[in-house]
Model the fold of this input.
Amino acid sequence: MNTPARLIPLLEQFDWACERLTGRLTGPFVDSGNGTDVEVPVLTDEEYLWEPVPGCWSVRLHSAGPGPGAALLTGAGEWGRDTAPFPHPSPPPFTTLAWRLSHLSELLTLRADHTAGGHSLTRDDYRVAGDAAEALADFGSAASAWRAALLGADDAALDTVGYCTYPYGSDPEDPFLDTVWWVNQELLHHGAEIALLRDLYRVRGGLA
Done:
């Protein structure tokens, strides 16, 4: 099936954002933005779980219970992600790199399922990664699943309201093209946050 013309720039943007974020997390180099390669170390478990301020929301062992201000840990398996029922705390808690990367991987995985899969996965079904290597692999798999779902959409699908039935957003009320745009901005803005957290970790305690 030919990719609809309207989807091509969004697909290219998604691919670029995934490549940029993956490079920022795994190295060994990433483009600084002006064509200069900047050395980047691969994400470690310590950095993945680093809490730069008190009261962070993160991913935690279910056996340890939720963190400060969180009501529960969502996710299957040994680990879960701090969360609270709606309405969420205001101002929102500061979230760790682990929280943000898990959030991205979950939303991509679930949206792929609710677009081109069984339309059944929930946050409770998603297996949260407790270490950096697993989290990086999960992000790669999630991005591939969402990209495959996009490639299955024709022009009619892009205009179909509720083509994606993801239950944790406005997807069931939106044309699919709007959902595709929204996912890209989620990836771009959380990717930028993750990049900043890596910079803060690198200079923590005044270390260069």
Observations:
- The chain has one domain: 8-206.
